[in-house]
Structure formats: C-alpha cells, structure tokens
From TrEMBL:
InterPro entries: Aldolase_II/adducin_N, Aldolase_II/adducin_N_sf, MethylthioRu-1-P_deHdtase_MtnB. Zn(2+) binds at residues 107, 109. Pathway: Amino-acid biosynthesis; L-methionine biosynthesis via salvage pathway; L-methionine from S-methyl-5-thio-alpha-D-ribose 1-phosphate: step 2/6. The lineage of its organism: Bacteria, Bacillati, Bacillota, Bacilli, Bacillales. Residues 16-207 form the Class II aldolase/adducin N-terminal domain. This is Methylthioribulose-1-phosphate dehydratase. PANTHER family: METHYLTHIORIBULOSE-1-PHOSPHATE DEHYDRATASE.
Length: 216
C-alpha cells in the first residue's frame, strides 16, 4: 500500500508540537532513562490507512536534536527513508489510533502510575470516585466514578496489543500497562496533554488516599 502524501507543513507542524510537549514533559522528569514516547497523527485517517509522527527510539528526551522524530504508517513502519528507528512501543500507538481515530498519543512512565497499576492489578482497573479532575478527562458527570483499565505488560510488545484491543474504553482516554506506564490520547496534542495531566493528578491522588487510609 503506498502512503498518502503528507505536506511539509503538516509534518513540520506535528514535529513542532512534539518538540514542545517533549521539552515540557522532560522538565517534569516524565522520561526517565529514555523511556516514554509521544506521537501526533498527520494527514487523512481511515482505520486501515494513516500516518503519524513519533519520537525516535533510544534518544535522551531532555535533549533536542534534528533526529528526534520520524513519520510512520499504520503498521508502525517508517513512511519515508530514514535511519531512525521508531520506538518499540509504536505498535501500541498504531492500535490506539486504529481503534479511536484520535489525533495524538502521549506515553510516560512515572512512579505514581507504576505503583497504582500494581496496587490495583487484581481488579485490572483503577477505581476513581468523584475527583474533580475526572472533568479533565472530558467526563462532566457529578461525582463521576470511572475505572481506568490496566493491561498486562510483556517485553514482547505485539503480545500487549490484543489486550489493548479488548480493554480500551471509548469514554476513558487512557489505558495503563502494569508496572510500566500510561498511554493517554486526545483529538489533538492539546487535548492529549490535558488528559495525561489529569490522569497523573488522579494517580497521585489515589496513591496518597490509599496510603492515608492504611494508616487510619
Ligand atoms: Zn513505555
């Protein structure tokens, strides 16, 4: 299948957005040890054919270089000649785009999302009750209750994909990998960032709340 043409402007816009988010998240120490990855979709979308810009594998995300991003297609393969490697976790981005048609996906590893994913692993989701920041996820219900799904983490990334397919919920713009991190998405980079920030606030809240309750 040949790739649809992406204009230089579209590509540069996506790279500029990734650059900005990467610098900001890096200041928050959200990319420990080159972990994490960010992507922004470009051009037309159908579940069978799309392209996105994504962070290249193994780069120190606190540095800005001319080789930070590349364009890949719906199967996670580079759609332009390049010696850069897409992140190993690109296949997870592919599946989330295919299922949701969203515009951007941000993935970070943090201590709070790791601890919380393990703490609630038995129930395979993180329960959250009535926290104001649930509104940051686009849910405006009063005293909303949500369950943020957690899936298995395997070293072999393709093994994770079927669980994403099965567990992704269209009313919750994020999914956690056990003791690994969160994938959050939105219709564009602005919304994906808002969702990720809301999730991370919620994880810290839940962590502290669970801890307080144990010492009661
Ligand atoms: Zn990861």
């Amino acid at each position: 299948m040949s790739h649809a043409v992406i204009t230089l402007e579209e590509k540069q816009r996506a790279y500029a957005q990734l650059h900005e988010v990467k610098a900001l998240f890096s200041q928050r120490n959200w990319f420990a040890g080159t972990s994490g990855n960010l992507s922004v979709r470009v051009g037309d979308f159908s579940p069978e054919q799309f392209q996105f810009a994504i962070t290249a594998s193994g780069k120190d995300k606190s540095q800005q270089t001319p080789e930070d991003f590349l364009l890949v297609d719906q199967s996670g393969k580079p759609s332009e000649p390049t010696s850069l490697k897409p992140s190993a976790e690109t296949l997870i981005h592919c599946e989330i785009y295919r299922l949701t048609g969203c515009g951007a996906i941000f993935h970070v590893h943090t201590v709070f999302n790791n601890v919380i994913s393990e703490w609630f692993w038995d129930r395979k989701s993180v329960p959250v009750d009535g926290v104001e920041l649930i509104k940051g996820l686009g849910n405006w219900e009063e005293e909303a209750h949500i369950d943020i799904p957690i899936v298995s983490n395997f070293a072999d990334i393709p093994r994770i994909v079927p669980e994403i397919t099965e567990r992704l919920q269209h009313d919750i713009p994020g999914i956690m990998l056990r003791k690994h991190g969160i994938y959050a998405w939105g219709k564009n980079a602005f919304e994906a960032k808002r969702h990720l920030e809301a999730f991370e606030f919620i994880f810290e809240y839940v962590y502290r709340w669970e801890l307080l309750n144990r010492s009661r």
